[in-house]
Amino acid sequence: MPLSADRPQSKSTAISASRDILLGRRLAVISSGASLVLVSSISCGLAALPIKAEEEKNLVDQKDEGDGGVFGTIKSIFDPNEKTKAGKLLPKAYLKSAREVVKTLRESLEEDTRDVSKFRRTADAAKESIRQYLSSWKGQPAVVAEESYAAIEKAIRSLASFYSKAGPFATMTEEVKASILNDLKTAEDCL
Prior knowledge:
The chain is mostly helical. The chain has helices at about 1-45, 50-65, 70-80, 90-110, 115-135, 145-165, 175-190; strands at about 80-85, 90.
């Protein structure tokens, strides 16, 4: 009986010893790796000082130009504002919504009215984007003074005025269509 009791102990001792050896090797690798990283970072840090100074100078030059490099890219992702073509800083959500209105309304106006189902789809998309735009941005102080806001509002008012006078199923005249498209072009140029 004592012989069989010794065997499990010797196996567990052997397993324990092999685990200790593996743990010792891992610690040796980790500590030597950490030492290597420390030594290389110190030596590279001393050699990289002139390069780092040059990079900082370039970063300052880029900031003067308005581009922050990688930092600028990361910042732009989290920044709620975006520069327009005209160089103004406006809320990204406004720009996205306004661009969507311009795109869908233009598509709707340029759609062939003879294909009724396709015309209805584009008109419904334009109507929905206008509703979202107005519910989010109508009268907002951040954008109400912008030329793009005024142009989109003028286009929407012209559209509403035409349909209120002529009825919901009337075919739009070329004059009204050209006026609205001109307002959309003005808005797009400002976005």
